[in-house]
């Protein structure tokens, strides 16, 4: 019990440092951090043969795992396409691994051995838990449009929640809506300028990855829309 409590504290502290925000994290987010019991690699779903799947041979895994975590499997498939083209053993130059390109440090925060990240089921489950954790930590108001909500979460998945949190604070400091992707994207771009990344509300410093993040958000959203048109949830 003591070991699990320590892991929860380290998990929350790690995500808080990455996010650059020291706001209170609610009990639901803490509970989400303990969902490692469900991260059993090598689920018994068989890969679908060509011609019998709508998006990828991993359709069953995406459906079953994403549904259990409350996410749209077509969205998670769109993320997988842009992260790895559904390649389970991909390793990036920065060390991100597996189909969903999970960093070993993130896997450890979920009490998962980084050596298992090439397992598709493990990668998909961690990505779902991470998306849910990001969503809870960002505390996007319920009245926010689904397009803005999705864009903000995808930007955090790609660039780190800390830079997105900075851009939201900058938007608010300049009298703009911190829940509008249009406004937040603009301040993500401006975070390459010292006039903005040295602002008192900024906690994660300079950001130079705006173009990559903006393209990622746009491309994943577009592919998700195509998948939604192709197959029912």
Provide keyphrases for this structure.
233 residues, mainly alpha, 58% helix, 0% strand
Describe this structure in words.
- This protein has helices at residues 2-19, 27-33, 59-69, 73-84, 104-109, 120-138, 146-159, 161-173, 181-190, 194-197, 210-230.
- By secondary structure, the protein is mainly α.
- It is globular.
- Residues 1-13 and 15-44 have low confidence and may be disordered.
Strand-helix topology:
Elements: H1 2-19, H2 27-33, H3 59-69, H4 73-84, H5 104-109, H6 120-138, H7 146-159, H8 161-173, H9 181-190, H10 194-197, H11 210-230
The gist of it:
This protein has 233 residues and is mainly alpha-helical. The chain has eleven helices and no strands. The chain is globular, with a radius of gyration of 18 Å.
Give the low-pLDDT segments: 1-13, 15-44
Structure summary, number of beta strands = 0
Report the sheet with the most strands, covering strand number, pairing sense and barrel closure. none
**Class from helix and strand fractions:** mainly alpha
Give the overall form.
globular
Helical fraction equals 55-70%
SSE topology string: HHHHHHHHHHH
Mean pLDDT: 85
| Percent range for β-strand residues | under 5%
Summed up, the helix count is 11
For the CA atoms, what is the radius of gyration?
18 Å
User: What is the distance, rounded to the nearest whole angstrom, between the alpha carbons of the first and last residues?
Assistant: 38 Å
């Amino acid at each position: 019990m003591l070991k699990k409590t320590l892991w929860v504290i380290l998990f929350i502290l790690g995500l808080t440092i990455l996010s650059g925000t020291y706001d209170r994290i609610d009990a639901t987010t803490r509970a989400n951090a303990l969902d490692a019991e469900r991260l059993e690699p090598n689920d018994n779903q068989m890969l679908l043969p060509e011609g019998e799947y709508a998006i990828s041979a991993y359709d069953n895994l995406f459906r079953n795992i994403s549904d259990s975590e409350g996410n749209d499997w077509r969205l998670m498939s769109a993320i997988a396409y842009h992260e790895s083209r559904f390649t389970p053993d991909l390793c990036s130059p920065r060390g991100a691994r597996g189909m969903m390109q999970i960093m070993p440090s993130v896997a450890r925060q979920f009490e998962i051995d980084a050596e298992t990240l090439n397992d598709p089921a493990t990668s998909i489950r961690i990505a779902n838990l991470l998306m849910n954790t990001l969503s809870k930590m960002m505390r996007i108001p319920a009245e926010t449009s689904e397009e803005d909500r999705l864009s903000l979460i995808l930007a955090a998945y790609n660039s780190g929640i800390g830079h997105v949190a900075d851009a939201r604070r900058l938007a608010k400091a300049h009298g703009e809506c911190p829940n509008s992707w249009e406004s937040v994207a603009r301040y993500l771009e401006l975070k390459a300028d010292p006039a903005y990344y040295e602002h008192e509300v900024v906690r994660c410093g300079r950001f130079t990855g705006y173009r990559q993040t903006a393209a990622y958000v746009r491309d994943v959203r577009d592919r998700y829309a195509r998948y939604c048109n192709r197959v029912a949830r």
